[in-house]
Amino acid sequence: MMTDLGDLLNRTTALALAYLESAGERPVAPPASMEQLVADLGGELPAGPGDPAEVVGSRARAADPGLVVANAGRYFGFVEGGALAAALAADWLTSTWDQNAALFVLSPAATAAEEVCRRWLCDLLGLPPGASAGFTTGGQMANLTGLAAGRHHVLQAAGWDVEADGLFGAPEITVVVGEERHATIDRALRFLGLGDRRVTVVPADGQGRLRVSALAGALGTGPAIVCAQAGNVNTGAFDPVGEVCEVVHERGAWVHVDGAFGLWAAAVPALRHLTEGVERADSWATDGHKWLNVPYDSGFVFCAHPDSHRAAMRVSAAYLLQTGSRNGVDWSPESSRRARVFPVWAALRSLGRTGVAAMVERSCAQARRFAGILAADDAVTVLNDVVLNQVLVGVGDDDRTRAVAAAVQAEGVTWLGTTVWQGHPAIRISVSDHATTDADVAVAADALLRAVHG
Description:
This protein has helices spanning about 5-20, 35-40, 50-65, 85-95, 110-125, 140-155, 160-165, 185-190, 240-250, 305-315, 340-375, 400-410, 440-454; strands at about 75, 130-135, 175-180, 200, 225-230, 255-260, 285, 300-305, 380, 390-395, 415-420, 425-430. By secondary structure, the protein is of the alpha/beta class. The chain has a domain at about 90-345: 3-Layer(aba) Sandwich (Aspartate Aminotransferase, domain 2), CATH 3.40.640.10. The strands form 2 sheets. It has a 7-stranded mixed β-sheet, sandwiched between helices. It has a 5-stranded mixed β-sheet with strand order 1-11-12-10-9. Helix 6 crosses helix 10 and helix 11 packs across helix 13 (about 440-454). It is globular and about 60 Å long. The model has no long low-confidence stretch (mean pLDDT about 95).
């Protein structure tokens, strides 16, 4: 007999609780191989239906050896937040409600929640209160959307309708990026027909900040877009966005800010100086599944020019009933999409202004604690100014740094990432999980130092 729905959901709750209760004791990065996981999850497609409870239970058992524990406080490999209790619970309800957030008529509740969160987020992040907002899968699509709005805006000013006429024959757009921009900027520009070899790269300083002195000579005379960064992915450093805007807007060009995690510094009084002038930009991208600690996936794009934002994303068809003052499809590349705004609403409502600030500030303090423990050891070099939540570490020569990182990753007590910084391998530590405690930092730092001296 097939399991009834109530029993199935109760069993699933038990599986979820068992995972959460054991997360702190599990290896952070399990050693399961791709071959093992495919074998356990695979086999022939069943010929017919199966019991849903058995399907969920067997999936949980087969997936378990391949789960990375990124939400229990000791994962520092990428900038990944955990999942706040309110956000996790709201995410479960989101799946239960199964709302399509594309149109008001499809989900008035999701549409209203997006408008409420737009207002809350603009206020929290110090952005213009009238900025438009789209709710995307993450920073990649948020960057793409902001840059698409910029492409529309600068070409419209030059007398060209890119949505109607495409890029063939269009005025050439000068795109300027910093040497240390995130890879999703390049990818978004490729999606928009503004390929790698058409981009002008200006140098960065020793912490990865774009050198404003190089901007004026790179802008050219026609339509132009400049990509600035709030929070370098390696060092956490911020481009001087206010100065960038001053130079770029004098030329009538567009400034897009990639603030995937760093934009959240604006929510913290003690860190707000890092984002000085950011409100003067034209578009902004950030993530919810990083420092807001909502479940994957969640990103936000904001635009100071709603008409350009909407024009770049617009879709129309006779059957699409675009009623009401807001339709989500107007503000993001996705049409049919999950109502990912509900966990965002729950996170913001449960934390409030001071809770968001405390969560971000705590991560930054723990990054400084990490750096302090490691810098006290003569065998370790901290390579960056720890201004936010990122710590870069070198251990002797390149081979030694790579070997130490591999040893820590294999042990499983914690997981630290690697990168290349100024031509050399480095260990990259990112602190952004609300569940991380000072004790977790001590355990992770000890694991790294044992690998250094082992």
